[in-house]
Amino acid sequence: MRRNWTRLLRGGALVCGVVVAMTAGTAHAQGKGAPAPAPKAEPAPKPALKPKPGKILTPKQKQDEAKKLFGEGKAKYDAGQYAEAYEIFKQADELVPEPPVPKYSMAQCLDKQGKTDEAIKMYEAFLAGKTRPDKDAARITDANARIAALKSAPADVSVVVLPAEAAAAALTLDGQPATNPIKAAPGKHTIGAVLEGFEDGKTEIEVARGEKKEITITLVAKPKVATDPEPGPAPTPTPVEKPAPAEPSGGSSIVPAVVTLSLAGAGVVVGGIFGGLALKSKGDYEAGPTQDLLDETERNALIADMAFGVGLTFGVTGLVLLLTDSGEEAPAAEPKAASGFVAPFFTPHGGGAAGVVRF
Predict the structure, then answer these.
(1) Which is higher by pLDDT, 276 or 342?
(2) Are residues 210 and 163 part of one domain?
């Protein structure tokens, strides 16, 4: 046993001697001018990251790590980097889920990004956690207010009207005037654009609550109507020589005969009309005798008789004028002798005579 201990001591002393010799050799080499190794640069501090899988942290370490992450997430949020802030807050929430303060911050990030439904769920998750009424009172109040506001929030629809010259088109939402961007309740809608000189345009959309959306409506110009060219100066009229007036004929004219016969025809027409009315009222009287029908029959018959009489008179006169006109000029020295005639006429309700005298 003693021998074993002796061997061990001797072996240990030998190892120590070798180590001392190597150290002395190294120091001797450095003393001869060998360059010393450059000191390593201190690594830059890294931001707090999610612990690697499998690394076990104590509750105190988790609290410290979550606190660092929360500070980094707040800096990202204040800088407007809401997506990056959300991921950092999420890491902090996974480390320390209670109290659920990171969930409130995650909900704010979703809210800022316009992710309405996801933000509502995250606010509700925060309220469902073990909140602290004293420290989280402001967060609880804001979360409830944001949930109510987001659930009733309309969608924002930005409308781009093309082409550029149609950008001033008036917009409508389901037929009612609207301003851009359009506030639309969740659901399906029809958005239209109207501008003079263009065909009306419209598009169908479906939006969720709080959604931010952009749509494009393209208007088509109406075909231009061809217009007449502006009139030029009127051409100078060519003077036309007027024919010399014809010498008046010495013979008599047949115009009086034509006029008289026309009046005769008018008399016959009027007589025929009232004669027909008289026959009709007479038939009505025979079907149902009344004093009014009798008076009407006699009145119509009288007018018809008078019209026929006038027509006959003018007819005879016109024939006489037409037949007695020779068209030859009478000698200027010989005066014309007076001539004339009388023609009687009779009707069922009376009679008379018509005469013509010529000089």
Answers:
(1) 276
(2) yes
